């Protein structure tokens, strides 16, 4: 072993106290291991606590059943394989779907409460305490690939619920006997031969070392806050907003690589676009050439991803009748910045090519007269002939006037990274040579998880906790070689 | 040093005899080093020899001057920074543009001959021996970002010219004293401490080892032929055609990683779509919803990249007048598979949404009546009002009837990878820790080069040879530590 005198000795060291770290630590502790979690911030939570708190769960959970939806693991798998694809990780996804009902119950046992009612309108985030929401399952083309069932599970909280989830998971980890060391940043792994046997960290400028008898679990999050890593691996996100707690600098990915861990799909990203679903479904989303490019009832993450690749700027276009039909609670403070009697006027106002909106709306209305969206199959319940006067919103301005929230208008896009360390379904970090790195485990956005090129809300808290628990069980059952 | 008895001892070992390997080997030999190139195939050439042979060069070459074009390095830089971007490597690109005239002369000194005439029509590959061609410089939006000057330099060969280039470079390397060992596949690097000091290879089942006193240069090409690496890093290319000699399996990238080399932008790819430029400029390219998405006079690599991200299938649409105006030599054997008197009939025939082509052509003609492409700024010389009867071509069927060439209709897309080892501008492989790996160098598609998200023909042979030469000079001047 390297010449290290350890300050602490435990069975398992978990690095990072977001959702994956909480799940891994609790699972290892429940399996009998002594566990310490190192968190560089002054308290647990990480980016998970700042998230919306949606959990992508299904297969027939109690909330789904109470709301009258019949689901099963195969149906859930069919949707996610398509929505997270192409090229979702089918081995991980299969386990994730097969274990989803049990995983839902685990959240409840941890103290996360779900109101057994459905929020049945397009939105980024329900303004209610409803425990179930649609996350794209009821939009084309997924309606043709799986039986539409809502699987967005939310704690009983109005608005952003990440803190609710994390409060429960942190408490559950504590109850299981997990110890937490905050203000403690892991700086290197200690190896003995090719085996990871500990962690060296910094705490207020002092070095502190941890012997991990069974192993180390990296749950440090992604790398959206690291500009160099973005430039090297996910340059598409450069210049856009960051969905994180500011500490997602890829430190754990680098730690894993430093001992031979392989990385995977580092260019995969999630992006969110500040366009208002309730407005889009009633009108249309067009690109900088006045063209539609997606069914506007698509899951917001899906229309965001599509918009990210369009010639911009994109616009939300709606007619007066549509605008007035939006419930106040679904408006999120958005008011049109542009209004015009005719499409020709609106084209000039928005800088769109002459005739482009007229052509787009003309074709839309031609199909709408037959009650269908002939291009993208938006649900007929949202399809009607659009007539002036017209309004337009620039999604780059966000959901509320800048003066109200301090929001700075930017690209309108913000996101995070989905690539990271290559892991087995049991959370083992896989080396460049294709074998597990002895003693090293990882979960959450420090790893490449179930995702291919697509993303759905709730799959990061979902895959982070699900595979975090698996990693925690695996490391707890491991016997180190020294 | 590791316990290796070396079978051969030289100053420099180059792994892979494509264009980057040839350039590196020759440069090292000209600088006085003894050099052996290991090539796993039975002869040199690699994917470079099977390429089109375009060389992206400019800044005022003799061919440009003879054809009456004034260019300079800044103008070349302005175009490439945009066309290879966003996020082109500006440090490498600056050197590449500043050194381009000298690099052109180097090709001539190596024996590559260029006819001093311009092929002035949109094409993938001129059917003539003209030495100069446009590679997108004369298409919007680049016309607004740099003075349009053609920079596609081609050896005096009709059609695909990669073999002509490689024959000259291989001969030049030989003349400089470079020794070649074919049928010899490098399997591992020999390290002494953290320094690369040699290579172990396999030749007909026997192990053969090489001491490299100065260092090793990896020039093995990309990884499009490695399905596992594609799945891990560039899954978008899975299921599409491969532009390679069949041996681009990422072996050199893996060798570099095995000694701590970092990788960069592994998801970056080039794709080519078998759509006919001469037909597109005279008509339009539409996606599976009947929408245009690019100016059809864009460089083919640019319209290919755009088509790759469209909802498919895409179609080339042209009217009778346009079709009949295409010179026979620019038709490449393509004949329309679909013909119709009206757009309504053509929509049904192609499975496009009812009214979609009518709307697209209607808007196009509205602008064309004013002599402009109001959406994408196709050069006015290609813009006219389109009238029936109509023809359509499915680019997935390729450039000639399947029966004629044995070509199997597929996705219509084929490509290769642009990501690889991280290198300094001098060809040093950079470690995960950000420092050069002592004794290890790389160039060509085994590395991440000048490219951001864009690609232009001639920049792989261009950047491979340019930075190959730099790597060869660097390794020749190095003194190993043992």
From TrEMBL, chains A, B:
Swiss-Prot/TrEMBL cofactor(s): FAD
Pfam families to which the protein is assigned, alphabetical: FAD_binding_2
Keyword RNA-binding: no
GO molecular function: 3-oxo-5-alpha-steroid 4-dehydrogenase activity
Alphabetical UniProt keywords: FAD, Flavoprotein, Oxidoreductase
Coiled coil, from the record: none
This enzyme's EC code(s): 1.3.99.5
Highest taxon in the source lineage: Bacteria
Limits of the FAD-dependent oxidoreductase 2 FAD-binding domain: 11-460
GO biological process: steroid metabolic process
Gene3D superfamilies with a match to the protein in the record: FAD/NAD(P)-binding domain (3.50.50.60), Succinate dehydrogenase/fumarate reductase flavoprotein, catalytic domain (3.90.700.10)
UniProt keyword Cytoplasm present: no
Name recorded for this polypeptide: 3-oxo-5alpha-steroid 4-dehydrogenase
């Amino acid at each position: 072993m390297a010449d290290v005198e350890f300050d602490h000795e435990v069975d398992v060291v978990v690095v990072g106290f977001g959702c994956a770290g909480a799940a891994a630590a609790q699972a290892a502790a429940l399996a009998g291991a002594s566990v310490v979690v190192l968190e560089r911030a002054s308290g647990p939570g990480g980016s998970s606590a700042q998230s919306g708190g949606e959990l992508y769960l299904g297969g027939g959970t109690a909330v789904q059943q109470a709301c009258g939806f019949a689901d099963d693991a195969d149906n859930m798998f069919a949707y996610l394989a398509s929505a997270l694809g192409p090229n979702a990780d089918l081995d991980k996804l299969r386990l994730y779907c097969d274990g989803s009902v049990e995983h839902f119950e685990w959240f409840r046992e941890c103290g996360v409460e779900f109101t057994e009612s459905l929020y049945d309108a397009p939105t980024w985030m329900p303004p209610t305490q409803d425990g179930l929401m649609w996350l794209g399952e009821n939009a084309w083309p997924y309606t043709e690939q799986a039986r539409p069932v809502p699987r967005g599970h939310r704690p009983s909280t109005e608005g952003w619920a990440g803190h609710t989830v994390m409060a429960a998971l942190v408490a559950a980890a504590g109850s299981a006997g997990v110890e937490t060391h905050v203000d403690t940043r892991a700086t290197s792994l200690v190896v003995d031969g090719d085996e990871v046997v500990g962690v060296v960290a910094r705490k207020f400028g002092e070095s502190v070392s941890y012997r991990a008898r069974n192993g180390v679990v990296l749950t440090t999050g992604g790398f959206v806050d690291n500009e160099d890593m973005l430039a090297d691996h996910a340059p598409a996100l450069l210049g856009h907003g960051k969905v994180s707690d500011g500490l997602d600098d890829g430190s754990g990915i680098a730690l894993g690589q430093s001992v031979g861990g392989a990385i995977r799909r580092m260019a995969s990203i999630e992006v969110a676009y500040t366009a208002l679903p309730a407005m889009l479904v009633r009108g249309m989303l067009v690109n900088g050439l006045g063209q539609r490019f997606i069914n506007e009832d698509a899951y917001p993450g899906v229309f965001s991803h599509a918009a990210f690749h369009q010639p911009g700027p994109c616009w939300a276009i709606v007619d007066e009748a549509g605008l007035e039909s939006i419930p106040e609670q679904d408006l999120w403070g958005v008011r049109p910045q542009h209004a015009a009697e005719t499409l020709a006027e609106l084209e000039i106002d928005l800088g769109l090519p002459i005739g482009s909106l007229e052509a787009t709306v003309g074709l839309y209305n031609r199909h709408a007269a037959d009650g269908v969206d002939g291009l993208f199959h938006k649900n007929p319940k949202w399809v009607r002939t659009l007539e002036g006067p017209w309004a337009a919103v620039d999604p780059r301005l966000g959901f509320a006037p800048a003066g109200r929230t301090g929001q700075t208008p930017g690209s309108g896009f913000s996101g995070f990274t989905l690539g990271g360390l290559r892991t087995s379904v049991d959370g083992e970090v896989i080396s460049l040579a294709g074998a597990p790195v002895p003693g090293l485990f990882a979960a959450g956005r420090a790893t490449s998880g179930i995702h291919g090129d697509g993303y759905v809300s709730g799959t990061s808290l979902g895959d982070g906790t699900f595979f975090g628990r698996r990693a925690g069980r695996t490391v707890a059952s491991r016997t180190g070689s020294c």
